[in-house]
Amino acid sequence: MAKSRFEYVRTYEQDQILLPNTYIVIRLDGRGFHKFSAHYKFTKPNDIRALGLMNKAAFCLMKQISDICGAYGQSDEYSFVLQRRCRLFDRREAKLVSTFASTFTAYYQFYWNEFFPDQPLDATLLPSFDARAVQYPSLTELRHYLSWRQADCHINNLYNTSFWALILKGGETEKEAEHSLMGTNSSDKNELLFSRFGINYNNEDPVFRKGTMLIRDMAKASSATPEPDLKDEMPLQEKSKRQAEREEKRRRKAEIVELHEDIIGDGFWNESSKWLS
Ligand code: ATP
Ligand code: ATP
Ligand code: MG
Ligand code: MG
Ligand code: MG
Ligand code: MG
């Protein structure tokens, strides 16, 4: 198509390209979910329907974008880990974050009725998500990143479980509950839950305590059918293109597994080669 004399303005567009050979993590977070969760009457401290909907939207995004190897979610946030050699959108940051946020939001809204059948979405308060991309140079930082998010889940959940027990079972006001928890550490909260309310924190639902880890299990993915002999006569470029296509096919067919377990300790990471490549 002929170029117009206006075309030059395109040169003002500046793409931020994410570094090659790094793990890209894209974290989404619900906008104003404090207010959103109150508006739609999420149960406190944890609404299982809302977590189910987050997990559903994340699962659908992983199905659609095969470069995602794993994802971790808790509360109103989800972090997506892209494979190191990912070439999606030529690693353009703006394309990645805007596509992830809008596609996730679309799924969240599409499946809303399935999880909240009695509460239709109200056009004056629709859910939306922001997104950021972070690059990690090695497995160590990636592991520490996911550990950070799960530790955050644990700290917040222990606090919220104690806070809402004091209010809903202990009859305290929000101010009183806040005051009761001031200066308490983890074991104080565990003790308080058990002695005053008979709650053993370790028996709380793992979805609440640990969050959700989704992995694309490549170990179980069937290996592709062998190439016909003809491949030796193909130019190198063609061959690697075919290889990339086969790899892509394998990724699409691989099962996505949902876990609610510890992802900080060695156990989870000893097996990481099956989903991280
Ligand atoms: P921002 O736009 O800056 O992210 P925010 O109001 O979303 O603001 P967050 O720090 O993201 O603030 O906190 C999200 C809040 O949403 C939580 O503090 C909690 O009140 C609520 N929330 C999210 N998920 C759930 C859930 N499954 N059950 C109950 N409440 C939830
Ligand atoms: P990318 O993901 O790179 O943006 P794309 O397929 O969306 O790829 P665009 O250059 O954005 O490519 O072009 C959008 C295409 O969508 C148009 O070429 C046209 O085929 C179609 N399209 C968009 N809006 C309309 C419309 N109102 N009526 C008919 N076709 C439309
Ligand atoms: Mg935030
Ligand atoms: Mg938020
Ligand atoms: Mg949040
Ligand atoms: Mg387009």
Q: In this structure, how is the largest beta sheet organized? A: 6 strands, antiparallel
Strand order of the largest sheet: 4-1-3-2-5-6
- Rounded radius of gyration (Å): 23 Å
Given the structure, what is the number of helices?
A: 10
CATH architectural label of the domain at 17-148 and 206-220 and 249-274? 2-Layer Sandwich
Task: State the total count of DSSP E strands.
Answer: 6
The residue ranges in which pLDDT falls below 50 over 5 or more consecutive positions are none
CATH class of the domain at 17-148 and 206-220 and 249-274: Alpha Beta
Class derived from helix and strand content: alpha+beta
Shape: globular
Question: What is the CATH homology-level superfamily of the domain at 17-148 and 206-220 and 249-274?
Answer: tRNA(His) guanylyltransferase (Thg1)
Mean pLDDT score: 94
Assess the beta-strand content as a share of residues. Answer: 5-15%
Small-molecule components bound: adenosine-5'-triphosphate, magnesium ion
Q: Provide the CATH topology of the domain at 17-148 and 206-220 and 249-274.
A: Alpha-Beta Plaits
Following the backbone from N to C, one meets helices and strands in this order, namely EHHEEHHEHHHHEHEH
Region (Disordered): 219-256
Protein name: tRNA(His) guanylyltransferase
Catalytic activity: a 5'-end ribonucleotide-tRNA(His) + GTP + ATP + H2O = a 5'-end phospho-guanosine-ribonucleotide-tRNA(His) + AMP + 2 diphosphate + H(+)
Domain tRNAHis guanylyltransferase catalytic: 6-137
